[in-house]
Amino acid sequence: MTRIVAGESAVPKRRRAIEAALAVGLVLLIVVGAVVASTVSRNTEAQAVEPTPAADLKLGYFGNVTHAPALVGIKEGFLAEALGDTALSTETFNAGPAAIEALNAGAIDAAYIGPNPAINSFVKSQGESVRIVAGAAAGGAQLVVKPGITSAADLKGKTLASPQLGGTQDVALRAWLADQGYKTNVDGSGDVAINPTENAQTLKLFQDGKLDGAWLPEPWASRLVLQAGAKMLVDEKDLWDGSSTGKPGEFPTTVLIVNQKFAADHPDTVKALLAGHAKSVAWLNEAPAGQKASVINSALQESAGAALADDVLARSLANITFTLDPLAGSYPRLLQDGVEAGTTKQADINGLFDLRPLNDVIAGAGTQRIPAAGLGRD
C-alpha cells in the first residue's frame, strides 16, 4: 500500500524515486566508463611510446675528408655491423642546409653535418627537429685566396665562395669578414661579395680566374692550394683559443645529428649507430697512415666519384682532428656568428645536445664523459 500525504500525490514521489535510481545508475556508468577509458588510454599510450629497433636507418653525409668517420664507417662496415638487423642506407650531400632539408622531410634519419645547419634547424623548429648526439671532426677549414692577396685589406671588392648559404664555412667567412670591418649581405652584395657555390664548381671557377678565394672544408681547401695555385690566408684553427672548450685550435667541423622523433622512437638504434661511429673514429686515430689513406680514398671514389691525390689527402688529414667530442662549449659563439651573418635568429639553444647515448657507449672503455656544456643532456 502506498501512503498518501495531504497535498501530495503518489505519482511525483514515484517519479522522483525512479529519477534518483536513474541518476545513481548514470553515475556508476560514468565511473566505470572513465576507468575503462583510462585503462585503454594508458595501454594505447604505452603501445605508442614503446621504443623498438628501427627496421632501417637512412644516413646522410658528404664526400669530404671532414666526413671521414662516415666514409670509413660505411666502407669498413663498422656502422652496418653495429646496427645489426637494422638495414643501413646512405645518401651523399654537398652541404649542410640540403641535408637538413632531407632530414626534416623524412628522407634521412641521421646525418653527418656541420654545426651551423644543425643550429639553424633546431632554432627554426623551436627545438623539435634534431639533436646533436656526437662529434665527428674538428678543424679542417681555411680561407684560401689568389697569391696576390696578402691581407684582409686586399679583399675589398673581391668575390669569395663558400659551400652553401648558412653552412658552417659560410657563417665562419661572414663572421671573420665582419671582424675585419667588412659588411656582407646574404644576397651577395656588400664590401666583399660571397657566392655560395658547390665545392667542385668552386675549384673550377678559381682555376678560371672567376673567384678570388673561398672558405672551404677539406679536401677542397687543399685542392685549391695544391692544384689551383691558391694560398692560405686564414686557418680557422687560429681563431679558436680554447677558452670555451679547453681545446685550443679545435672547432667543430662535423657532428652527427639524429632526427628527434627517430631518436625517441628508436633509442637502441641510435645507440647502435653511435657504437659504429665510435669505432670509426677510433680506427681513424689508430690506423697506419697508408692504410687510412687507402680506405678513405676508396670510399671517396665510391661516394664522390674520384679519389684524391696523395699530397692533397695528406695535407687534408694533417689539418683535421677526428673526435667524438662535439665541442659543445663553442656553440654560443657559433650561434652568435650566425645571427650576425644574418643566416639564423637569436634563440635559446639549450636542449640541442643529447650525449647520453654516446656516453653510455664509451663508458665501458673508461673514457671520460663528454659534456654538453649546459646545452642539453650528457
Characterise the protein shown here.
Residues about 1-50 have low confidence and may be disordered. The protein is α/β, with parallel strands linked by helices and about 375 residues long. Strand 6, helix 6 and strand 7 (about 195) form a beta-alpha-beta unit. The chain is built from 14 helices and 13 strands. It has helices at about 10-50, 70-75, 80-85, 95-105, 115-125, 170-180, 200-205, 220-230, 260-265, 265-285, 290-305, 310-320, 330-340, 355-365; strands at about 55-60, 85-95, 110-115, 130-140, 140-145, 160, 195, 215, 230-235, 250-260, 320, 355, 375.
In short:
With 378 residues, the chain is α/β, with parallel strands linked by helices. The protein has helices at 10-49, 68-75, 78-83, 96-104, 115-124, 168-179, 199-207, 220-228, 260-265, 267-286, 289-304, 310-318, 331-341, 356-363, and strands at residues 56-62, 87-93, 110-113, 130-139, 141-145, 159-162, 193-196, 213-217, 231-235, 252-259, 320-322, 353-354, 376-377.
Write the SSE topology:
Elements: H1 10-49, E1 56-62, H2 68-75, H3 78-83, E2 87-93, H4 96-104, E3 110-113, H5 115-124, E4 130-139, E5 141-145, E6 159-162, H6 168-179, E7 193-196, H7 199-207, E8 213-217, H8 220-228, E9 231-235, E10 252-259, H9 260-265, H10 267-286, H11 289-304, H12 310-318, E11 320-322, H13 331-341, E12 353-354, H14 356-363, E13 376-377
Parallel strand pairs: 1-2, 1-3, 6-7, 6-8, 12-13
Antiparallel strand pairs: 3-10, 4-10, 4-11, 5-8, 5-9
Helix pairs in contact: 2-10, 2-11, 4-5, 5-13, 6-13, 7-8, 8-12, 10-14
